Amino acid sequence: MRINHAILIRALPADRLEDFVNDWLAQRCKDYHSHELWRGTGDMGRDVTGYVTDKRMEGPWDNFQCKQLSKSLSESSAFIELGKIFMHASAGEYSLPRSYIFVAPRGVARAVQQFIAHPERFRTAFLERWNSDIAGKLVEKQSIPLSPEIEMAIKAFDFTQVHWLDAARLVDDPACKSALVKWFDEDPGPSPRGVVPDQIDASESSYIGQLLKLYEEKGPGTFPDATAALASPEFATHLRDQRTRFFDSVAFDRFYRDSTPEDYLFNFKDEIYHGVVEIHGDDHPNGLARLRQVMQQAALLQPSGILGKHAGPQVKQGTCHQFANNGRLPWHR
User: Fold this and answer.
1) What is the pLDDT along the chain (333 residues), one digit of tens a residue?
2) Which residue, among 207, 237, 208, has the nearest Cα to 224 in the 3D structure?
3) Interacting residues of 130 by C-beta distance below 8 A, sequence separation 6+
4) Which residue, 278, 10, 287, 36, is CA-closest to 169?
5) How large is the greatest C-alpha to C-alpha distance in the chain, in angstroms?
6) Who contacts 270 (Cβ-Cβ below 8 Å, separation ≥6)?
7) CB-based burial of residue 68 (10 Å sphere; 0-12 exposed, 13-18 middle, 19+ buried)?
8) Interior CA angle at 156 toward 83 and 53, to 5°?
9) Which H, E and C letters describe the chain, residue by residue?
10) Which are the contacts of 259, defined by CB distance < 8 A and separation ≥ 6?
């Protein structure tokens, strides 16, 4: 039965929802330089912030306001939460955010949805309601009247950049996949197969250069480049197989780098390394014999976790070529 992740997100405690959103932003690396989790007293209306540049809050930034409620986000709460941003920005605590996103797993009230859909109506309502509906609810036992600075902040803010996300919208974001894997053991599914280019790619030149030296050691013949090896009756099939393995492992990495937490792929590779390093270091008649023994061992490994479930023999073997590429387990020594 397919897991309903939206229901699981709605059941998270408030502070855990903030953690979940923080993990979600970690995967949105194309959108943000970095991100930060704020929590508790002194958050100044920020829960999780995404920074567009290394200037962090002194550059463009987005605010994700998490509201884990037993019902949809009310109109009153929406004005108060966004009002805190205008209050603190007008006081010089930070610049106005580039965008403001309500993360409300149970959604927003229809009135809030209407305001977000009508940005200028939202702005006008802020100015008209500040003193009557907002001023007395921003700070405990204080009233924060509409000052010229606050009015200026409201007029300067781009209300087209107010958005809302409920749990279903959050789950549908492709960037959420990694957080779902981490939090709810979501299976990201199998990776696609790699595509082997006709010409030798720069990314594979190092390990292929090492293979050519092994072929020459084994003989017969000399192999100044991959074309010569691919024309050889002794080594053509072997080289084609190694390229298939390498690009399958590259496709595997690319897929799970985008769909699982960062440490999953690191741990997978580390288990492959420790599963073959002793055999790699053993004495062998020649370098090609070493490579064959390592390949046999790699195919038998059973790495842990969800990546181990989806890693076929060629992926594990191709990962060893990546180790040769980066010098961790060179084929030619």
Assistant:
1) 678 999 999 999 999 999 999 999 888 877 899 999 997 788 999 999 999 999 999 999 999 999 999 999 999 999 999 999 999 999 999 999 999 999 999 999 999 999 999 999 999 999 999 999 999 999 999 999 999 999 999 999 999 999 999 999 999 998 899 999 999 999 999 999 999 999 999 999 999 999 999 999 998 889 999 999 999 999 999 999 999 999 999 999 999 998 999 899 999 999 999 999 999 999 999 999 999 999 999 999 999 999 999 999 999 999 999 999 999 999 987
2) 208
3) 83, 145, 146, 150, 154
4) 10
5) 90
6) none
7) buried
8) 90
9) CCCCHHHHHHCCCHHHHHHHHHHHHHHCCCCCCEEEECCCCCCCCCCEEEECCCCHHHCCEEEEEECCCCCCECHHHHHHHHHHHHHHHHCCCCCCCCEEEEECCCCECHHHHHHHHCHHHHHHHHHHHHHHHHHHHCCCCCCCCCCHHHHHHHHHCCHHHEEEECHHHHHHCHHHHHHHHHHHCCCCCCCCCCCCCCCCCHHHHHHHHHHHHHHHHHCCCCCCCHHHHHCCCCCHHHHHHHHHHHHHHHHHHHHHHHHCCHHHHHHHHHHHHHHHHHHHHCCCCCHHHHHHHHHHHHHHCCCCHHHHHHCCHHHHHHHHHHHHHCCCCCCCC
10) 177, 178, 181, 188
Determine the residue type at 215: Y
